[in-house]
Amino acid sequence: MSRNATLGGIVMFATAVALFATLDTTAKWLMSTGLAALQVAFVRYAGHLVATLAVTLPRQGLGVLRSVDPRLQLARSLCLLGSTGLNFVALSYLPLTTVTAIMFSSPVIVTLLAVPLLGEKVGLMQFVAILLGFAGVLIVVSPWDAELHWAIFLSLGSCICTSVYFILSRMLAREATATQQIWASGIATLFLAPLAFWQWQEPSGPLVVLMMCLIGLFGASSHSLVTLAHRMADASVLAPVVYLQLLFATIGGYVVFHQVPGASTLLGAMVIIAGGVLLWLSGRRKRIAAIRTSAIAISSEQSERKLKEDR
Questions:
Q1: In which domain, by residue range, is 50 found?
Q2: Pairwise CA distance, residues 102 & 140, whole Å
Q3: pLDDT above 70 for 235
Q4: Separation CA 248–CA 241 (nearest Å)
Q5: In whole angstroms, how far apart are CA 21 and each of 60, 100, 107, 248?
Q6: Is residue 308, in this structure, part of any structural domain at all?
Q7: What share of the chain is helix, strand, coil (3-state, %, to 5)?
Q8: 171-185 exposure pattern, b = at least 16 Cβ within 10 A, e = fewer
Q9: Which band of pLDDT confidence, cut at 50, 70 and 90, is reported for residue 29?
Q10: Does 303 reside within a domain?
Q11: In 230-247, which positions are buried (b, 16+ CB within 10 angstroms) versus exposed (e)?
């Protein structure tokens, strides 16, 4: 890939990460105005669904709704729904930076789950990264603290749902991106609709209505930018950019809610990030080794072919 394309991919991915932080900030703010957590989750996915259908249906038709594996797609969509629902409820009680720091452990959990679910092997560096990730989560959660909030466990549950969602996404790699987005947002909208209307609270003003409309666009835009970014730059290049979300969450928490992250949250986040970077480095080394092995094999085949031709 060219340098300009890679730079464009990084900028797109950083923008997506900023939108993810904006989405969480908006959700927390909407709940602070009196809206129910499931109501906010519903408008987030309903807006995402409408935006995605408006873009894809005119170009691809109803065929975009057809999945190669409906049962796996349903399971993936429910995992994303569980992740968002638990995350939004946790956000109504916890600071943005705490929830964001816990979510950073997702790559570590994905690596751990990939062993039994995908048959992948964990090397020494990956094992150390897993230990670092869990150590960081322990620092953030601080189970020894007398003031441990029960919503921490919702955030951990959200992280586990997200991790399983990523595993299922790998299993559905041959599925079209648009199809995955429609299924994920559509299933969530259908499941949340009755619960949301049962708990429905009238918006307190025009600004609240505006943010209810925008939160779905934040979700759709961020996922679309992630897809575009991965077309322009390698995943190994983009992976560390996700940690910018802690910076964006800290800014959002301070500007909107006047929250300053505690020392344990920042320390735990740094330890989790260290584990994530170690995972990234480990994966990068494996990819480089695979490329070299492939190059050597191709070179050997070409040499053998040339020798045969000379004879």
A1: 3-275
A2: 7
A3: no
A4: 12
A5: 31, 8, 18, 6
A6: no
A7: 85, 0, 15
A8: ebeebbbbbbbbbbb
A9: very high
A10: no
A11: bebbeeebbbebbbebbe
Domains contained in the chain, number: 1
Cβ atoms of residues 108 and 130 within 8 Å:
yes
Query: What's the chain's Rg over C-alpha atoms?
Result: 21
Domain assignment of residue 184, yes or no = yes
Whole-model pTM above 0.70?
Answer: yes
Task: Fill in the amino acid letter for 259.
Answer: Q
Q: Which residue has the tokens 């800290």?
A: 250
With cut-offs at 50, 70 and 90, classify the pLDDT of residue 85. very high
Distance CA 61, CA 245 (A): 35
The residue assigned the tokens 């964001």 is 100
Dihedral of the CA atoms 291, 240, 91, 28 (nearest 10)?
-110
Q: Is residue 296 part of a domain?
A: no
